[in-house]
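Workshop exercise sheet. Pairs work together: one partner reads the sequence aloud, the other fills in the structure field after running the prediction. Swap roles for the next sheet.
Pair: D.N. / O.F.
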Amino acid sequence: MVAGPFGALREQLTDAAATFAGSADALAGILTGIVDDVDRALGERLEIFPVCHHSPASALAMVRRLRHKQPKVIYLELCEDLQPLLGELRNCRLPVAVQAFASELDGFPAEWGPLSVVAPVTEASAEYQAIAYALETPGVELVLVDRSTDHVFQWSPRHDAAPADDSPAGDGGPVDDDSPAGATAAAGGEGEQAALHGDAVGVEIGDLRPRFAELEAFLLHHGKVRHWSEWWDQYVERPLAAADHDTYRQVMVLIGSLFRRLRPAGSDRTDRDEDRERYMWTRMRQHLAASGADPADCLYVCGAFHAASRVEQFGLDSPAPDFAITPRTGTRWRYGLIPSSHSAIEAQFGLAPGSVSIAAATWTKAVGGSGPAPYRLDGQRGGKGGRGRRKSVPPVAAPGGPVADRLTGFLAAPPHLDRLDEAELRGWCVDIVRLARRNGYLASTADAIAVFETSILLAGLRNRARPTPYDFADAAVTCIEKDVVPGRRDVRRLCEILLGGDRIGQVGYDALPPLARDVLDRLQPLGLDLEKRTIGRALLDLHADPGLAGCSDLLWILRHLLPGDAVRPIMGERRLGHRSIQESWDLALGRHQRALIELGYEGVTVEQVLEQRLRRSVRGPDATAAGALAAVEDAIRLLHSPRLVDELGTRAVELLSTERTVDDAPEVLRRIRRLLAHHRATAPTLPAWCEAFVTTGYAHYCTLLPTAFVEEETGVRQVGAMLGFLFSMESLALSLGCDRSQLELAVAQSHPEAPAKVALVWAARHHLGLLPLAELRERCTGLLANPLVVPAFPRYLSGFVHALEPVPGLAPFVVETMSSAFARLPDPVLLPWLPTLITTLREHGPELVPVLVREAARTFPGTLPELDAWVPPWRGSGAAAPAPTAHRGAPVGEVHTLLAAHPAALDAVATLLGCDGDWSAAPADPVGAAVPALLAGHPATAQAVAALLLGPDQGHLR
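Structure field:
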C-alpha cells in the first residue's frame, strides 16, 4: 500500500498501465508521475493557484477563492516591470493590453527592433480578478514575479532574427511568449481588430495547450471537435465551472503535468520555462524574506503548466540556492496600455476564431445569475463594480489538515450532461436568421427551424446532450451559408457577433501617454470626439478661421507619422511653398489608438518624434542622399526649424559624396531641383548646404559618369538623370567655382556600347557643342539605312527620349527622327518594331513621353486636309529625307502668277532658310480652258448625266 492521499490512485493507474500497455514501465511512470506532481504542488506551504489564460472557469474559481481566503499577498505570473501600469486599468475599457516598448536597442540584435511585449487583460480572466482584488482591497499587496520584459528577449535564441516558436509543426500552437518581435499566429477575426497588437510578443498567464502534435490530434479526433479551443471548452471548462476549490486545483495541476511530461524532449522552450520557474520562486523567496509575510496568507497565481514544475528551486523549503538573475541590458523600455480585442487575442495566441468571445459570453452568463460577484476596479469603464456585494461575504480560513483526494472521484464520475435549453437555442436560431438577412442572405423561418434541428443532431453525434455554441455555429453554416457569401461577413463570423461579438477595448484619456493627450487637446477646436472608433470628417477653413492653422499643422505631422487611414486628407495639400486655405480630413484616431500610444513612447510631442525620426533616417546604415533630401523636404513642410533643415542638408551632402552608385540619381535630381526652386523663391540667397550639394554633386557625377556609361548594372534612366544634374546645375556650379573642363573630359571618356547609352552620349556631345545637329541627323540616317541596326533602333530612340531630361532642346529632333523612321521603314520591318518601341518608352521614360507628344502636336498639322499638303520642316533644312514617290505639279492660279511675276521676296526668304529651287512656269493652256473644250467636243456623256438628274425633257448641254 502506497502512503499519501493519492496512494490508491497511483495503484489504479499502475494496474491500468500494466493491463493496457503490457508493461508497467514507461506508461506507468508517466501516469504515476502526474499524480506525484499533483501531490507535490498541493503539499507546498505557499498555496499555488493554477489557471489557464482567458478561462471563465479559472476566473470563477479565482473569485471564489479570493472571497474565502482573502490573502494578504498575491504573487502573479506576469513580467515584474509591468506592475506600475496595473493601476491604470481602471481608466480603460477592457480588453486592453499592458505593453512594454523599446525602439533604441542596447544589447540586442539591431534587426529585432523595435521590441514590443504585450500582456492582454480581459474581464473573464483570473489574472484580472486577482489584480482587481489586490488593488481595491486595503492591506493587500500584489507582486509580479515573472522575468522582466528585458529578460524575455535576453532568453530568446540569437541564431535567428526571426521569432522562435518551439511548437511542433502542425499543432497550431500559440505564439511563444519568449520569441522576439514579429510572432503573430494567423487566426480568425477581421483584419483591423486582429492587428491591434501589431507585431508585439504576447505574454500570458497559463499557456495550457499540448506541445505534442500527435497528442492534440488524438484528443481532437476522439473528442469529435475541430480545434483545441472547442475541446477545452467541452472537457475542461464546463466540468470545472462549478467544481469546488480542491477539485479545481487538482484537475488543473493534473492537466498541466500531463502536457508537461508529454512535451518533446530537448526543446529550447522547456529550458526557458524552467528558467522562468526558477526566476519566480527566487523572487517569491526574496519577497517573503524581506517583508516577513506569512506564507499562509499568500497566494501564488501561475499557469497550470508551471504549477507542476519539477525544478530544484520549487517550494519555499527547497535547499537549492536562489537562481542567478542576470542584470538587464541598457535598452530603455517604455510602458503603457494599448487597446486590445477578442480577435487580436485569438490571432496572437493561436486560439480558434470566436473562442474568446464565447468565453466572455460564458463568463457574463455565469456571473449574471446566482454566481459570485466578480471583482472590478473602481471607475472601470464598461460595467459596474462589485464592491457592495463583496463586503457581504465573510472571510473563511483556508482548510487545514492533509489534502483530500478529489481526482479519483472526478476522473471516475460520468460526465455531467446539461439539459437542452430550448429557449436559448431557439433565440440563437431566430437571431442568426435575422442577422443573416441583414447581411444579404436569403434566410427564412425554415432556415431557423433547420438550424435548430441540425444543432441538436450535431450535439448528439458528438455525445453532447446540449448543443454548444460551436455546434450551433456549424449548423448555421450548413443551413444558411450553403455555397455563396453575398456580403462581407460569412455565417461563422455572424455567429461570433451573435454569441458575444468582437469586443474592442479602449484606453482612457487619463491612462494615455503625454503625447497622446497633447494631440487630443490640440485637436479639440475641430469639435470631434476623437476617442470614438468611427471616422470623423473635419472641415478647416483657414481663411475664415486662422486659429485652425495649428490643427492643420498637427494633422499633417500625424499624416506623416501614423498609418495612412488614421489621418487622411480629402481636400488640400501641403507641399513646398504651398499651403491650402481650405482642408478636409477623415480622422480615425480612435481606431488607431495603439499607433498613437506608441508614438508617446518616442517623445513628449509629435514634433519631437518627427524630428527624431528624421534624424534617424539620415543617420542609419542604409541612409542615402535621396532619403536625406526627402527628410529635408519633410522638415521644411512640417516643421519650422531652419536649424534642422541645415543639419539634414549637410548630412545629404555627406551621403552624396560617399555614394558609389547612381541608382538614386533620378530621385536626387527631382528633389534638389524642387528644393532649389523653393529656396530661390523664399530666400534672398541659397543656403550653404544647397551650394555645397550642387558643387559636390557636380564633381561626384563627373567622376562616376564614364563608369556609369559602360556598367550594365546602371540603367539609361540613371545616366540620363546624371546628365540632367550636370547640365541643369552647370551654370550654378560654375558660378560656385566648378570647372567645365571636368564635364567635357567626363563626356569625352565615355564610350558606351548599349544603344540607349550611345544615344545619350551623342546628345551630351551635342549639348556641349562637340556634335552639330547636321552630323547627328546623318548618324541617325545611317542607323536607319543599316538593316542590321534597325531592330535595335527603338533602344536608340529610348536613349534620345531620356536625353530630353538633360537636353530638352532635342525634342524637335526626336520627333523628326521618329517621323523619319515611320516614313522610311517598310511595313514588314516597322510592324514588329512597334511593340518594342512602345514597351521601351513605357518602361524607361513614361514621364518624358508627354514632352514628345506636346512637341509632335506643335509640329504636325491639326487637320487631315492640312496634312495632305504638309511638308515636314526638317525636310527643307538640309536633312536627309526619302525621295517623294510622285511629283506634284505647281499650283496654278492668280497667287502663283503674282509670285512668279515678283520672285524677289520669296527668293530672299528661301536663301535665308537655305532652300534651293527653280520657279516652274505656268502651263500655256490652263486647266480651266481645257475642260469646257473637252465637254463640248463629246457632249453625249454629259447629256446622259443631265437626263438622269433633271429628266429627259430638260437634259441638254449648254
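Discussion prompt: Confidence is low (pLDDT under 50) at residues 160-189, 384-400, 877-891. What would you look at next?
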